[in-house]
Amino acid sequence: MFKWILKQPDSNMLVPKEKVAQTYRWRQLGVLLATCIGYIGYYIIRLVFTTEQNDIMKEYHFSTANIGLILSCFGIGYGIAKLFMGVLADKCDSNRYLMVGLLLSAILNIFLGSTHNLYLMMLLMFLMAVTQGMGAAACQKMIQLWWGPRMRGTMYSIWSSAHNAGSFICVAIVQLAVFLFSGSISAVFYTSSAVSFIICILILVLGADRPKVVGLPDISTYTGDKVILENGQVSTSDQTDLSVGQIFVKYILQNKLVWAVTLTSMSLYLVRYGIQSWIPSYLVQNKGFDPAAAKWIIGIFELASVPGVIIIGAISDALKGRRALVSIACVIGTLICLTLYFFSNNHALIIAALIIMGNLIYAPLTLVGLMINEVVPKYAVGASTGFMGFFQYIFGETLATALIGILVDKFGWIASNSVLYVASFAALIFLFYTAISESKMRKEAENNKLD
Questions:
Q1: Angle at CA 73, nearest 5°, toward 69 and 76?
Q2: Dist CA 171 CA 194 (whole Å)
């Protein structure tokens, strides 16, 4: 299995020049579908536990703190896995890597639905998080290798919005399974895994690792794509003889902009999961929502953000890649929506705030994921994705689940509100630094051209 997912050699059968453009378009469509459908599958598995948290607390006699601990195990495992699995993705066939991660996640999900033991559930969530860590790095690498800068923001946003669609589809599958299997919690887990097994087949059929594997020229040759590094130097290659350790030290640990974007993303993840993970509990306990309606609101929060994220990604392309400035505007809007969400008791207004906030949170999260890939060479995309993911989940999601769960038990929901405000302002500070750095890098690149 391991040998099968390693990076494949370039194809010896080259596509005729007159057919390159047409073949590229069809292959790009296949890659886009594979990454989107594949990531939907990942989120179908990932959010089953979150969606069912109220029923699990009731049937398994778990407390809010217990739920927070289980969710935090996913965050810790996913953060660690993002780092190591992201680095490994740079040495593997991205499409096959994506499929294997989903397959293993679906198998572990079956075991998760078969136990009521708190500690076993924590272990299974941790292991599932490791396999889930294979998804994002593979998808981001494929997008970086298949599209040039003029369309990359739009394509990346379309892919990123797939997890929003996956969240809604997860809720739909949960509700369907509850209806078909008389409310069985185990059946909900089994049904989501069955759907993901089918998606694994689609990934293999539709996707491809990189253009040269299918006889096409690489994206740098095809579109003139290039990466501007921190020192203003330009990189176009997607291959290197550097070791994993050398890549990681040179292009990740020593890159100040990678750190700035990573800390931005960590702060935004705290806001994202501080809202998403607690929507059912917060709305039922604090705002008087019906439990069944609160489940659907998770899906609405996710799905409603899809068009906005894609539009904002396209706007960042139209502004010639000024993604940090676009993100700053989104975070300011998020702060306004957070205030409505926390202090209003009007159900319609709360739902409206969540819908708008979904767009404003996921758009900068999408853009920072693209930003960190665009400041490193293409052969370091997996490593940069993994490095950022480590901070997103070890600190961002863990603080949003375990810490908030404990704080709410002791001090009430006002503690959660305070944490999310602080995280939002921290994201703004890092984004301003990133925007200034992006401007300096462009000027250095232009000066290098003149020289």
A1: 125
A2: 15
Confidence tier at 76 by pLDDT (50, 70, 90):
confident
HSE at residue 253, side-chain half, CA atoms within 13 A, is 8
Kindly tell me if the per-residue pLDDT of 444 is higher than 70. Answer: no
Per-residue pLDDT, 254: 82
Question: Please, which residues have CB within 8 angstroms of residue 237's CB and are 6 or more apart in sequence?
Answer: 220, 377, 378, 379
235 φ, ψ to 5°?
A: -125, 135
Query: Residue 237: is its pLDDT beyond 60?
Result: no
Average pLDDT in the chain: 82
Q: How far is CA 188 from CA 162, 179, 383, in A?
A: 21, 10, 34
Q: What is the pTM assigned to this prediction?
A: 0.72
CB 224 within 8 A of CB 137: no
Say whether pLDDT at 5 is over 60: yes
